[in-house]
Each structure stands twice: as C-alpha cells, then as structure tokens.
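Render this sequence as a predicted structure.
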Amino acid sequence: MKDIFALKLYARVARLGSFSAAAREFGLSQSQVSRIIAELEGDLGARLLTRTTRAVMLTEAGTEFLSRLDPILIALEEAEQSVREGSELRGTLRMSMPSSVAIREVIPRLAPFLQRHPDLRLQVLLGDRPQDLVRDAVDVAIRLGRLVDSSATATLITQISRVIVASPDYIERNGSPVTPEELTRHRIVGGPASVVPTAWKFVRADEKKVLDLDAHFSADENEGAVAAAVAGIGITSTSEWACRRELADGSLVRLLIEWKTADIPVHAYFPMGRATRAAGRAVVEHLAANVRRELAIHASRT
C-alpha cells in the first residue's frame, strides 16, 4: 500500500508540476513529498522529475512512466470504489469551467452530490480562457459551444438558448432593433459568448441572417459582458444561463425574439478519455440528470 501511495503522489506531482500543491492535497509537508518521490526514483533507478527553483518538470522517463501509470491508477480507484461500503466517492476531483457557468449554474447544483460523497474533495478552476487540461490535471471540463476536437471524449449535458439582450435604459435611449440588420446601428458588447461564428446568426421561417459585428465594448469573461449590458453600454449575445437572473428581475430584456438563434451545446470534456475517474463520470451524470429534471418541470408548466 505504501508503494501505491507513492505512485498516486507521483502522479499528482507530475500533473500539478508542484511538490507544494501535491503536498497540500495529500496533507503532507513539501519535504515529505520530496522524500517519497526520491525514494520512488531510487526504487525505479530512474530520474522521473527535474526540479528547478521555479518548476517541477517531467523527464522523458517520467513522461513515459506517467502515461503507463495513469490507467493503472484509474483502474485501481474503480476497483476500490466497487467494494467500498455505500459506494461513496473519495479523493480529489478537479473540474474546469467558465466562471459564469460555474457560479450561476453548476456550483448551485452540486450540494446534493457532495452531501452523498462527503469524503470527495472538489476543486473548481474558473476562467473563460482556454486551458491546458492535462497540464492542469483537470479530470472534467465543462465547456460551452461546439466541440473544438471532434475526436475528444465528451458528453453532451444539454443545449441552452442563445439570447440577444440589452437593458431597459439602453432601449429607452437608443430604441429596440426590429430586424437583425438594425444591430449594425447599435452599440455592441462583446464577450466570450459573442465572438463565436453562431453568435449573430438569425433564422425566421425561410430567412437567414448572419452578421459580423464589431464590439464597442468587450470583456474576456462573460460576467463582464453581462455587467456591461446591464449598465446600459450596449447589446450583447450570450447564453440564457449567463443572464437568467437578469432576465427574471428585468435588468435585461430579450431582443429580436421573433428570430431564432442557434442553441449553445454544453459538453463535459474528459481529458483522460476512457480512463476518466469514476468521480468525474458521476458528477457529470448528476449535472445532466439535474438539468433534465429542470427542463421537464419547465415543460410541464408551459
């Protein structure tokens, strides 16, 4: 069991690129982690990691060892899980997702899941910018929009509506566009959700309109774009998830509702592919089931 612990510890150090980060996860001191890894390297007769004052990097042997070790550790975790009383999940699960999606939609849905698995530690990495999921040791990434890599291992959680929105104050001052073409005469707020190819694509019956609009104000995170729209700076295109609260309280209103805009798919990416940890698959199943229940309730009321 000591050897298995050392292997698990090595995998986390390698993924995190840090002795101190792995030490915090395992409740050890940095010196203890360094000693255990050194003993592992001594047993193997190979240098696995290169240590500098700024980073911990994999050697060629370390990279090869990690690629062969990861599936074994995943299989071992699943074997332990299969016989564990109550099927409670344990360990640390790292998730990555856009800030707006996490704060508004995902984190509020996680409490029942974490109550069922009190020994599971969840780490959430927030940000709208692309991340190196393997380098950051991400188990599950929630992403909005089309799949960048069609060969990636992913699960579709749901599809959410895209909306064109502005504040009542902006509309009072500038009027409301009646046709998509009229957007060219308005102030546009840009954000991550408004720069994709389908952001300004409209369909009504047999009519199709595709606009290329320059932003007068832009933000690199969706929360910034929504805040700008609420402040009356301009019109933005975003997901309904990103502004559901503002639509409900009236600080934003939908525009061009007679025109259909492209839905936004929500996927869960699994960087480890088929070797994804059981906890990663379980949390995605929980989120998908929660969203399906919400949609069913909404459908029954309409």
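Summary. The radius of gyration is 23 Å. The chain has ten helices and 15 strands.
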